[in-house]
Amino acid sequence: MTSMSFGAELHLKSLNTNQLRQIYDVYKYHGEKDYLMIPSYQYPAIFLSHFPSDYNKITDEKERNSLFIKILAPLALKINLEIKKERDTLLALNQKFENKQPLNNKELKTLENMAGKYDVFTRLKGEERQRFLLRELLLKIDFIPPSLLITAAAIETNWGTSRIVKEGNSLYKTLVWHTNKGLKPIGESEDDSYRIKIYPDIYSSMKEFALSINSELKFADMRDVRKEFLYRENIPFGNILAPYLIWKSPLKNYAGMFQYTLAYYELNIIDKSALDSTIDLNKLPKKLKRLAM
C-alpha cells in the first residue's frame, strides 16, 4: 500500500505476446516466479487495454498464468492508487467537518457525487446528512487487495482464455439484464433475459468490479473486516478477506478454488507492492513505440 504520485505510464494497445515480452524485457519486468517483484515490491506502470492477440495460443500453462498475473497486477495497483486519491479527498472533507468548518458548495457537491457513486443514501438533511455520508463513505472508499482482483479474474475467465475476455474484455462475467447489448451466454442457460457485459478494455472491467466491492451490500461484511485491519495499520491481505468476498457462483467449490489459487501463486505479495512511476518511455525501441497509446 505504498503511496506514490502518478508518474510516467506506458499504455499499450493491440499487440502480440512476443512484442509484450520484448517490452517487459526493456523494463526488466521479471521477478520471482517471473511475476512477483521481490525484493523491490515495485511493478512497472505498464497497462494493457486488451490481452495479446495470440494469448490463447500459449500452450504452457505456467507461462500463460504468469503472463496473466503480470498483465493484471499493474492494473490492480493503479486502481488502488485511484481509490487512495479519492479517499484522501474524502478525508480532507471529513477533517474540515470535524473541525466544525462548513463545507462549501463545491465540497458538498463532491460529497454528494461520492455518495451516489458508492450507493450511500439517506433522507437526513443538513449537518446530520453530511455526518452520515462521511461516516459511510469512509467505510466504503478504501484499499482492495490486488490479489482478490487478480484471483477472481483468473477463476472467472479460466486465466484469460474464455471468450468473454476475447470478445468482451470482461474479467468477471458481469451480467446485464433485459437487454440485447452484450455477449449472449453459450451453453449456460435457456434464460434469454440477460447478457454478459462488454467493456472497452480490461481495465474498465476491473475498475467496475472494484467499485462493486466497495459499494454493494453483499460485500459489507468484507468491508467491516477490512476496516479492523486498516485501523490497526495492517494490510488486509487477500487471503484474509477472500471468505467475505465469495458470492454465488455456478462454479463448484468456488471458495476452495479461490483460496487455493491465491495461496499457490503467492498473490498476497502483490498486496504490499506498489507501482514504479520511474518508467522511461524513451527506452522503448522505435519498433515498439508505435504500440503505445
Count of discrete alpha- or pi-helical segments spanning 4 or more residues: 12
Q: Which value, in Å, is the CA radius of gyration?
A: 20 Å
Text of the CATH class: Mainly Alpha
The CATH topology label is: Lysozyme
Helix content: 40-55%
The largest pleated sheet is described as: 2 strands, parallel
**CATH architecture tag:** Orthogonal Bundle
Oligomer: single chain
Mean pLDDT: 91
Q: Structurally, how many domains make up the residues? A: 1
Strand order of the largest sheet: 1-3
Shape: globular
* Distance separating the two termini: 27 Å
- Class by helix and strand content? mainly alpha
What does this entry look like structurally?
- With 293 residues, this protein is mainly α.
- The protein has one domain (10-289): Lysozyme, CATH 1.10.530.10.
- The protein has twelve helices and six strands.
- The chain has helices spanning 17-26, 61-98, 105-117, 126-140, 146-157, 163-168, 202-215, 220-231, 238-245, 254-264, 268-271, 286-289, and strands at 10-12, 42-44, 46-48, 175-177, 194-196, 274-276.
- A two-stranded parallel ribbon has the order 1-3. Strands 2-6 form a two-stranded parallel sheet. Strands 4-5 form a two-stranded antiparallel sheet.
- α2 runs antiparallel to α4.
- It is globular, with a radius of gyration of 20 Å.
- Residues 1-6 have low confidence and may be disordered.
